[in-house]
């Protein structure tokens, strides 16, 4: 890691969840490495990447956890939700079945993560518009009704990928700022009312502020 | 069953020294099967030391191991990766317009880091395993790499190739003879075969040895051919009986998952031509249907590959190896390979089914064992991981779930499996 990498004000842990094959791994590689792989291997368990971006004048390091979509891994992947401040729930706009189960993914998420987690619904694969099975309005309405951010993306042609991650990171940032104003905790910021002791992602003097749930 | 060699080179677990790991009142962590049978480390070491015999056709693998254990090389490689990473970070500022360039730089650098490892593999080969093939197969290995090259047809099939090296060393020849004698029957002593296989099975006899060791073929030589015929028939009867149900409501999820996973396997040695894809789909679907307790779980698909590749080697001539097209094999041969792969994979999975049942207890147990092992043999590493809140499950889950298929070159996996059977 270069030293520039170490200079950040916040670490935000964000999880990518959703059915197998909707494109979670490619969304992540598009965002962190600007790469797309037509036959990227199935994710086994969890893998993660980071990218540091500027939000306002704060340097935010996004630590994004890419989880396996397969049902059998749930017992193990759910442990990875711990400490996440954001989640992208991804579905494939060309496969209605992957949208139908978004409810189940949300339940899974709220069962294991803090209630204050920022959640974004992501309809991926807009490059396959001719095969669309989920109308954008429908997904948008669902997101509005459930208090989720919403965006449609294409990891293949890059549409909105940057924007999706930036939006959720900004939203988390604003939540953190608000919390900071209200809280007198000084440097350690938590989105949750109760802050568990051990989930702080990074704690050194060099790093001005860490976020934990 | 799997024979554990964990900790073969390290002192046994001492609860007094590792009080921190065991909570008071809890039972000491389970030790590997092999350890239970021996009372001292010396005994254990002598029991397992033959796995590292020098001079066999393991030379290439030992070369890899040696390279890997060489601190200088490790540090150098680590340094390169870091350099490469920093460079990439800088490059990312340029984004779109330099994308292509960047990919090339990255793959070139990563390949050169990787190449050391792959090259040492091909050194064991006489000539035909070209560096080109090794390079592209090495690029297939890491999923984060951009796939800029077309994989060779069956490049890694060079694995079968060493057996036809003109000059087998005397020792190799005598080992091959020993295997041949054992395999010739009339009743193969499986324990003896297992013992002999511990330090590696010569490529030429590997297909038969695997089939015997897995319990697929009977020890009695006269019954083997009829067993093969019967089992192959039985498998295709399953196909007949179940395969049409793949689009039924209760099975379509299983089939859909298998269907989307196979193109995403990108095994390093096989180009997934439609014919190969179909074979893998059938094997996996039939297995899943017949094992409802676990069903199909990602990772199981990777376990077909070693069997398939080893059994293909049974049917091809040395000069075909380099650019071999699996689908050019006669239909009947392909069917034999398919059925044999199915049965041997089933036998392997029988022993590790709890890896894939709900909550995957087998994997969790193995990851715990790994944690115990690391804490014992390299406390510094263990403490470091702990300090940074890195959980073993986060990095070792895939190792166990895919039996290292994603982590080491296929040749090494195949060699390891010689000891699993």
TrEMBL record, chain A:
Pfam families: Ras
Molecular functions per Gene Ontology: GTP binding; GTPase activity
SUPFAM superfamilies: P-loop containing nucleoside triphosphate hydrolases (SSF52540)
Top-rank lineage group of the source organism: Eukaryota
Subcellular location: Cell projection, Pseudopodium membrane; Endomembrane system
Ranges annotated as biased composition (Polar residues): 184-203
InterPro entries named in the record: P-loop_NTPase, Rab_GTPases_membrane_traffic, Small_GTP-bd, Small_GTPase
Keyword vocabulary terms for this entry: GTP-binding, Lipoprotein, Membrane, Nucleotide-binding, Prenylation
NCBIfam families in UniProt: small_GTP
Assembly information from the UniProt record: Interacts (GTP-bound form) with RAB11FIP1, RAB11FIP2, RAB11FIP3 and RAB11FIP4. Interacts (via the hypervariable C-terminal region) with ITGB1 (via the cytoplasmic region); the interaction is GTP-dependent. Interacts with ITGAV. Associates with the integrin alpha-V/beta-1 heterodimer. Interacts with VPS33B.
Name under which the protein is recorded: Ras-related protein Rab-25
Lineage: Eukaryota, Metazoa, Chordata, Craniata, Vertebrata
Automatic annotation (TrEMBL), chain B:
Biased composition (Low complexity): 127-147
Region (Disordered): 92-164
Stretches assigned to the Rab-GAP TBC domain: 200-421
Keywords: GTPase activation
Basic and acidic residues bias (residue ranges): 92-106
Gene3D superfamilies in the cross-refs: putative rabgap domain of human tbc1 domain family member 14 like domains (1.10.8.270), Ypt/Rab-GAP domain of gyp1p, domain 1 (1.10.10.750), Ypt/Rab-GAP domain of gyp1p, domain 3 (1.10.472.80)
Protein name: TB22A protein
Organism: Ciccaba nigrolineata
């Amino acid at each position: 890691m270069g030293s520039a990498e170490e200079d950040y004000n916040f670490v935000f842990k964000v999880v990518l969840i959703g059915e197998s094959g909707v494109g979670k791994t490619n969304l992540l590689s598009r965002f962190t490495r600007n790469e797309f792989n037509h036959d990227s291997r199935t994710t086994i368990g969890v893998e993660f990447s980071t990218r540091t971006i500027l939000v306002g004048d704060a340097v935010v390091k996004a630590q994004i956890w890419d989880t396996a979509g397969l049902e059998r891994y749930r017992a193990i992947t759910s442990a990875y939700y711990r400490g996440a401040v954001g989640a992208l729930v991804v579905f494939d706009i060309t496969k209605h079945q992957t949208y139908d189960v978004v409810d189940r993914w949300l339940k899974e998420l709220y069962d294991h993560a803090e209630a204050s987690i920022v959640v974004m619904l992501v309809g991926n694969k807009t490059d396959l518009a001719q095969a669309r099975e989920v109308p954008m309005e429908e997904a948008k309405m669902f997101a509005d009704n459930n208090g989720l951010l919403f965006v449609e993306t294409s990891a293949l042609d890059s549409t909105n990928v940057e924007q999706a991650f930036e939006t959720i990171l900004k939203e988390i940032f604003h939540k953190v700022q608000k919390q900071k104003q209200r809280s007198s905790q000084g440097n350690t910021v938590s989105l949750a009312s109760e802050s568990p002791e051990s989930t702080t992602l990074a704690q050194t003097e060099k790093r001005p502020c860490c976020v934990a749930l | 069953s799997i024979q554990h060699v964990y900790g073969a080179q390290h002192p046994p677990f001492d609860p007094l020294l590792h009080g921190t790991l065991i909570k008071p009142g809890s039972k000491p962590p389970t030790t590997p099967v092999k350890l239970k049978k021996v009372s001292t480390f010396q005994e254990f070491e002598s029991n397992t030391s033959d796995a590292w015999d020098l001079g066999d056709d393991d030379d290439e693998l030992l070369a890899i191991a040696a390279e890997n254990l060489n601190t200088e090389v490790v540090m150098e490689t680590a340094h390169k990766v870091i350099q490469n990473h920093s460079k990439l970070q800088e490059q990312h500022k340029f984004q779109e317009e330099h994308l292509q360039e960047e990919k090339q730089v990255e793959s070139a650098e990563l390949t050169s880091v990787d190449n050391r490892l792959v090259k040492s593999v091909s050194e064991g080969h006489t000539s035909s395993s070209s560096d080109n093939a090794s390079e592209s197969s090495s690029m297939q290995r890491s999923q984060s790499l951009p796939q800029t090259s077309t994989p060779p047809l069956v490049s890694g099939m060079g694995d079968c190739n060493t057996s036809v090296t003109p000059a087998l060393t005397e020792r190799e020849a005598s080992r091959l003879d020993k295997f041949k004698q054992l395999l010739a029957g009339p009743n193969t002593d499986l324990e003896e075969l297992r013992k002999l296989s511990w330090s590696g099975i010569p490529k030429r006899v590997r297909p038969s040895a695997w089939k015997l060791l897995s319990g697929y073929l009977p020890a009695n030589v006269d019954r083997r051919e009829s067993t093969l015929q019967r089992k192959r028939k039985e498998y295709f009867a399953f196909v007949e009986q179940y395969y049409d149900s793949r689009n039924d409501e209760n099975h379509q999820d299983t089939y859909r998952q298998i269907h989307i996973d196979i193109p995403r396997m990108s095994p390093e040695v096989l180009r997934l031509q439609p014919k190969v894809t179909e074979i893998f789909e059938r094997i996996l679907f039939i297995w899943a249907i017949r094992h409802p307790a676990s069903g199909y779980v990602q990772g199981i698909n990777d376990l077909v590959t070693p069997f398939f590749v080893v059994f293909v080697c049974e049917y091809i001539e040395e000069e075909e190896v380099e650019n071999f097209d699996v689908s050019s094999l006669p239909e009947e041969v392909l069917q034999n390979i398919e059925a044999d792969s199915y049965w041997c994979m089933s036998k392997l999975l029988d022993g590790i089914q709890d890896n894939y049942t709900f909550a995957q207890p087998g994997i969790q147990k193995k990851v715990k064992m790994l944690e115990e092992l690391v804490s014992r043999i390299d406390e510094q590493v263990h403490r470091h991981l702990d300090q940074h809140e890195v959980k073993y499950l986060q990095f070792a889950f895939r190792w166990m779930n895919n039996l290292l298929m994603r982590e080491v070159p296929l040749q090494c996996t195949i060699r390891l499996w010689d000891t699993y059977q």
